[in-house]
Each structure stands twice: as structure tokens, then as C-alpha cells.
Amino acid sequence: GTCALALLNSVGLLMLLIQQNQQNVLLEQAGDRLTQVEQSSVVEFLQEVPRERAQRNVGKPQYQYSRNKRSDALELDEGQEKTLELPGADGMPGINGTDGIPGLNGLPGADGKRGKRCLIKSLINPRNVTKMESTFGTWMKDTAVLNDERVWVAEHFSRLLREYQSIAALQSNSSDIVNVRKFYQGCGHTVHGGSFYYQIAGTSSIARFDLDTKKLLTLTVDDALYHNRAYLLHNSKTYFKMAADENGLWLIYASNLDESIVVAQLDQKTFSITSYINTTYPRTKAGNAFIACGVLYVTDTKDARVTFAYDLLKGKPVNVTFDLRPPGGVLAMLSYSPKDRHLYVWDNNYVKLYVVYFISDE
Ligand SMILES: *[C@@H]1O[C@H](CO)[C@@H](O)[C@H](O)[C@H]1NC(C)=O
Ligand SMILES: *[C@@H]1O[C@H](CO)[C@@H](O)[C@H](O)[C@H]1NC(C)=O
Ligand SMILES: *[C@@H]1O[C@H](CO)[C@@H](O)[C@H](O)[C@H]1NC(C)=O
Ligand SMILES: *[C@@H]1O[C@H](CO)[C@@H](O)[C@H](O)[C@H]1NC(C)=O
Ligand SMILES: *[C@@H]1O[C@H](CO)[C@@H](O)[C@H](O)[C@H]1NC(C)=O
């Protein structure tokens, strides 16, 4: 009897040991994943970004807790609204270095060539394109390839991009998925000349991912703030902001020496920095920023107005201010596209377009 009981006990013990061993393996796997996650600084992000759905829930904000949830968040809201108006007739082309006159409720004159000093007068014709489920994100068209109508959507933190064949496909939520090989972070990306440019999460490096060949190049930026929540753009949790304009490609970041906003001009062919411009404007005063026609525009911390502008070609501030949107909610992104002279905006879960209306300053 005692012998049988002892045997039973040791079998039980063996089973326990086996179970424990399995659990250890699982724990180890989880540990490995966590290390991976920590290394790519996901943790910093997870602690900060409220779950997208939490917005709809009254009470305490909830927090995103898994990588799956993040990729799920790429999906669109069921109740998404299809509010894009059809563009109106094109405006008149500009005459020898002056602005084109914008078309009525439509695109500005496609051939309007601006003079060197093209400053923004105002933003006109705001249009809702669609509603997104996520509060933070970036939506982009290629800012250089003229007949590419594809739209890409990047969540705040992921390795995946959604690719839509057109704005209509974005509105009907029909997309493909592109793996860009490294985790990206923030809302400062751009698609330019067939490549997706992004901050490699947790690092001081910018990646250029060729959407066609899938080739990845990286560029390390010295003396930039890139982690520990010392954001360039606090409202959108963005350390590096890529920008394309009539002059090519720029990179906006905050210096780790004095926290001022620095703009680097990039050489697209070699993917290297050709010059640095120290705007001396403190990152702490910046809500968001974009570049159009060689001028950096920075919004106030409520993202309601553009309150600072800096001529990057002349290397001095310019006296330009204009309204952007009513304060409130999260403005995740605003980017200018020299291809269609629109501002691409992600505001309070809506992706929107504004027509940029320039004045020539002569
Ligand atoms: C959008 O598409 C994804 C998959 O492509 C799907 O999982 C999701 O449910 C769709 N969202 C809506 C609102 O239809
Ligand atoms: C525009 O420039 C061209 C060439 O410089 C000139 O021939 C033409 O008269 C100009 N047009 C106007 C409207 O100024
Ligand atoms: C876009 O949608 C928001 C939220 O529904 C609404 O308040 C706003 O008026 C819309 N804007 C345009 C230009 O339709
Ligand atoms: C930017 O310029 C200011 C004023 O000249 C200077 O004090 C500051 O150190 C410069 N910052 C960088 C990052 O070069
Ligand atoms: C900036 O422009 C405004 C309006 O045009 C003007 O009132 C103001 O004096 C200008 N400020 C500077 C510093 O030039």
C-alpha cells in the first residue's frame, strides 16, 4: 500500500516537473520576446499610447498591451464615413513665377509655377477623406512620382504598412500589407520616389525602404534626440519628421545639444545629409511641422495655428502665421506634398486634405 502510494507520488512529482519544465520553456520564450520588444523600445511606446478604442469609452484610458493589438489597429472603423468630395475643376496655371489660382473646391492649378519666395497665405478647402480607427498614424502618397495614386498608411508603431491602390480603396478599406523590415516609430514618415522613409524605432537612424526592390538603407543622424520621450513633436510622439518639398527631401529633428529644431537636407541618390540648418527654435514650442517650398512651418503646441516659419534656403525666420484647425484632440500628422500642393493631415482620427494656398512675396 505504502509502496503504491509512494510510486503514485513520484509519478505525480514527475508530471509536475514536466509541467514546470514546459512552463519554463514558455517563460523563456516570453522572456526572449520581451527582450526583443525592449530592444526595439516598444515598451516606451506601449506605456504611452492609449488604446485607440479607449477614446470611445468613458472613464479611464486603457493602454495598448500587445503587438497583435497594434496591428489590429490598422483596421478601419466600421462606421467610417465616406466624406471625400469630388475635386472641382483645376485652377488657372500661374504666370511666370506667380501662384496658380486655386480651382473652386478643387485642386490648385497644376501648372502654376511659383517664384522662389513662395510663402503660404492660408489653407483652404479642407476635406475629410475617411475616418481611421487609430488616433496616431501617417497617411501618404508618393510625393515625387507623378502618376502614382497609391496611398500608404502607417500606424504609430509597427513593421507593417498598408498599401491602398487609390484614395477610393482607402475609403473602402481594401489594402495590401507591406513589411518594411524594421519597426518604425512616430508619425513623421514619408513616401518619396518609391521609397518609404522612417525612423527605426528606438534608434537615431532613418531607414529608406524601397517599396519595389524591398532594399533597406539606413542613415544615422548624430546629435539628435531620439528616445526617452524627448520628442521633436510631442503631440504626435515623433522624434524625426521627414518632409518633401519642391527642393527635395528634408529631415526635421531636435538637437540633443540644446533642443533646438534642426533641419537636414538629404541627398536622395546617396541617402546622406548634405547640410544642416539650425533654426534655433525650441522643440518645446512646436506642435507639428512641415516644409513647403523651402520654408519650414511650425504650429503652436495646440496645433491650432502656424506660429513660426523659417526660410531654409535663406537661413532666416520669416514673418508668416496662419490658422490650421480649432484646438483640441490629437493632430497626429501634417505633411505637404509638392506633387499636388496639398497638406495631408491626420486629425482626431480623420484623415484630411487641405489645399495649400501660396502668395508670392515680391
Ligand atoms: C478593413 O480591412 C481589414 C482587413 O483588410 C479587416 O480586418 C477589417 O475588418 C476591415 N475594416 C472594416 C471597417 O471593414
Ligand atoms: C513669361 O516669360 C516668357 C519668357 O521669359 C515671356 O516671353 C512671356 O512674355 C512672359 N509672360 C508674361 C505673361 O509675363
Ligand atoms: C470632418 O469630420 C468632422 C467630424 O465628423 C466634422 O466635424 C467636420 O466638419 C468634417 N469636415 C469636413 C470638411 O467635412
Ligand atoms: C543653434 O544656434 C544657436 C544660436 O547661434 C546656438 O546657441 C546653438 O548652440 C546652435 N545649436 C546647434 C544644435 O547648432
Ligand atoms: C509680421 O507681420 C504682421 C502682419 O503682416 C505685422 O503686423 C508685424 O509687424 C510683422 N512682424 C515683424 C516682426 O515683422
Task: Explain what this protein looks like in three dimensions.
- With 362 residues, the protein is α+β, with helices and mostly antiparallel strands.
- The protein folds into 2 domains: 2-56; 67-360, Neuraminidase (6 Propeller).
- 15% of the residues lie in helices and 38% in strands.
- The chain is built from 4 helices and 21 strands.
- It has helices spanning 2-39, 42-48, 67-72, 167-171, and strands at residues 118-131, 137-140, 151-155, 157-164, 175-185, 190-192, 195-199, 205-210, 216-220, 241-245, 248-254, 260-267, 272-282, 289-292, 295-299, 305-311, 316-318, 322-323, 331-337, 342-347, 350-360.
- Strands 14, 15, 16, 17 and 18 form a 5-stranded antiparallel sheet that branches. Strands 1-21-20-19 form a 4-stranded antiparallel sheet.
- A hairpin with a 4-residue loop joins strand 12 and strand 13.
- The radius of gyration is 24 Å and the shape is elongated.
- The model is unreliable at 37-41 and 46-116 (pLDDT under 50).
- Bound molecules: 2-acetamido-2-deoxy-beta-D-glucopyranose (5 copies).
- Residues 255, 257-258, 260, 262, 278, 280 line the site of one 2-acetamido-2-deoxy-beta-D-glucopyranose.
